[in-house]
Amino acid sequence: MTINPITNLQTQLLADMEKFGDLMHRYNLGDASAKEERDQLEGAVEVKLAILEGLKRDEEAHMIMDDELGGEDIEVLGDMDEEDEW
Does some domain include residue 33? Predict the structure, then answer.
């Protein structure tokens, strides 16, 4: 069984957010060692959120293209430049 990458990433983010909350709580209680771990986790969460946004955008674009082509398999040719828009 293949796990949907979006669902997998969302699950990871929920666990990360819970851990982030725990680290913030520890830091607020005076545990200075939690700060570095909290900062690293915050960076990782930001990266995962950016990846999730990209995955969702790609999935949405493929759904739109599938609808427009009547559900046929399609091959995307070329890469989009930053100035290109959907």
Answer: yes
pLDDT tens digit sequence for 23-33: 999 999 999 99
Domain count, the chain: 1
Which pLDDT score, from 0 to 100, does residue 34 have?
Answer: 97
Q: DSSP assignment of the chain, as one string?
A: -PPPHHHHHHHHHHHHHHHHHHHHHHHHTT-THHHHHHHHHHHHHHHHHHHHHHHHHHHHHHHHHHHHTTT------S---TT---
Range of the domain at 52: 5-68
pTM of the complete model: 0.66
CA 26 to mean position of chain CA atoms: 26
79 found inside a domain: no
Contacts of 6 (CB under 8 A, 6+ apart): 52, 55, 56, 59
